[in-house]
Design goal:
It is globular, with a radius of gyration of 23 Å. Helix content is 40%, strand content 17%. Its EC number is 2.4.-.-.
């Protein structure tokens, strides 16, 4: 097949970019040719003889709103000019003013806007007004994109429900969960000293953007107040402009909370802790949650986190309310105080992750591509001329 993938970046160290990276690798292994219409692509992909990289320049106009629209206009013009060169056109959400065959829905702005935890208000400030208008525009554009594609691939059942709420029929959807590198994220030797973490206490890990309230570190910190003093928390994320160090100090948790700042070797950090806590107020499908499962960590999360749906009974703890600090604290204490329970959760978590490898995910995408290609090939065949006389 001749495959076109339209996205912003295709590289390993980016969430959506990693998904597309693995799809490209699987497509090349299967003998297909791939064109990447993107702003950035990994050098090893660009160097491949069956990869064509059509670079889309990013706009220098002010605001992300205008920049994304310019990117979509440029991508749309390119796709329309080259459409006949491809068997399958794969886009990611709203990224191009052009029809597509496959649309991977990683994030639905309408779901974020209506989830109950959306933090911006139109009349609060200029910044808030800009964020609301930006979200409204994205909602309208995503509706258009989902109407103008053949197959929608939500990354979770949670996202699928949000896409359906925009009017897309379930018959056009095939959920494909994001993947994880089960070889890179695996149980192994503890390296706490490397990250400046104390050796003795039970160590939780929180990883995420420390500037975003939806990741919900505040509830984790309040939950820590409900736990014993030998439960500590490692926090991985960029500290610049984060309000959480001040909250830690105000809660009297300075001796028990350890900020590592940005960590490049997340697999090693996960091997150095005892459990992973992820009570995100809104998450379409968190890669970091899958990584924790693959690392064999007991995972404590909430239903508002999209990845929670992959947690089978006995492979993690899924709470109902992301803001219930007492319930979160109790769940943490049960894992921290019962070694056998924690070990069984981690073992089962690793088993769940084995079915969510990047290779398995990419092969599911290729199956969708093949289905789309087969339907198009069948539609292009001339109809059988039943009325023609039979020649004897």
């Amino acid at each position: 097949m001749r495959i076109l993938i339209v996205t912003h970046v295709v590289r390993k160290n980016d969430g959506q970019g990693r998904v597309n990276y693995e799809i490209v690798q699987a497509a090349l292994a299967a003998g297909h040719t791939v064109t990447l219409l993107a702003a950035e692509a990994a050098a090893e992909l660009v160097a491949h003889p069956r990869v064509r990289f059509a670079r889309v320049a990013t706009s220098r106009l002010p605001t992300r709103l205008v920049q994304y629209q310019m990117f979509a206009l440029r991508c749309g013009a390119w796709v329309r000019a080259h459409r006949n060169e491809f068997d399958v056109v794969h886009v990611n959400g709203f990224i191009a003013w052009a029809r597509s065959d496959v649309n991977a829905a990683h994030f639905v702005h309408d779901g974020w806007y209506r989830c109950g935890f959306y933090p911006f208000r139109l009349q609060h400030s200029f910044y808030h007004a800009y964020q609301v208008i930006y979200t409204w525009l994205n909602i309208a554009c995503e509706k258009w994109a989902f109407r103008h594609t053949e197959v929608i691939v939500p990354v979770s059942q949670k996202v699928a429900a949000e896409v359906r709420a925009l009017g897309a029929g379930a018959a056009r959807m095939q959920v494909i969960h994001n993947g994880v590198d089960v070889d890179e994220f695996r149980p192994g030797a503890c390296e706490r000293a490397r990250f400046g973490l104390p050796q003795v206490p039970f160590m939780l890990l929180f990883a995420g953007d420390l500037r975003m309230s939806r990741k919900n570190l505040d509830t984790v910190l309040h939950a820590l107040v409900h736990t014993s003093a030998d439960v500590h928390l490692a926090v991985a994320g960029i500290l610049h402009n984060s309000p959480y160090p001040a909250l830690v100090e105000s809660l009297g948790l300075s001796a028990r909370v350890h900020f590592t700042d940005m960590v490049m070797d997340m697999p090693a950090l996960m091997r150095s802790v005892d459990a992973f806590v992820f009570p995100s107020r809104y998450e379409p499908m968190g890669l970091v949650l899958l990584e924790a499962l693959s690392a064999g960590l007991p995972v404590i999360t909430v239903r508002t986190a999209g990845g929670a749906e992959v947690i089978a009974p006995g492979s993690g703890v899924v709470l109902d309310d992301p803001n219930d600090a007492a319930a979160l604290g109790a769940a943490i204490m049960r894992v921290a105080s019962d070694t056998d329970y924690a070990r069984s959760l981690g073992t089962r978590a690793r088993e769940v992750a084995q079915n969510l490898s990047w290779q398995a995910m990419a092969e599911r995408y290729l199956t969708v591509y093949e289905q789309v290609h087969a339907r198009r090939a069948a539609q292009s065949l001339p109809p059988a001329c039943a009325s023609e006389p039979v020649k004897l």
